[in-house]
């Protein structure tokens, strides 16, 4: 398993593993923007890209994990936790935040395993599914 900055050549692979793309037509453009901005990272699992994540610094000037997406056939293989730990180790600020919906139990468990703790809630982003904000110190 290798984690590296995403390249334009990875765009099609990221589209193929992204489960949100079908419901959000603008998602492909967003992924391209993340790649172009240099904030998108991929987990190379053998010859395939198995996961990607986005680490930005727009959350009140702190590191923020904007996205962790693991391809369905790569789940439960440690790619998500490896990506989150990579972000913890390489975050440029002492505080690192992440968020996920209340309904996303897998991401909540992943963040807890990585040492994140609940920092707060944001209502009204998604109807009847509050966003939980998590916090951890960078390493």
From TrEMBL:
Keywords: Transferase. InterPro entries: Acyl_CoA_acyltransferase (IPR016181), GNAT_dom (IPR000182). Pfam families: Acetyltransf_1. It comes from the Bacteria. Transmembrane segments: none annotated. GO terms for molecular function: acyltransferase activity, transferring groups other than amino-acyl groups. Residues 1-139 form the N-acetyltransferase domain. Gene3D superfamilies: 3.40.630.30. SUPFAM superfamilies: Acyl-CoA N-acyltransferases (Nat). This is GNAT family N-acetyltransferase.
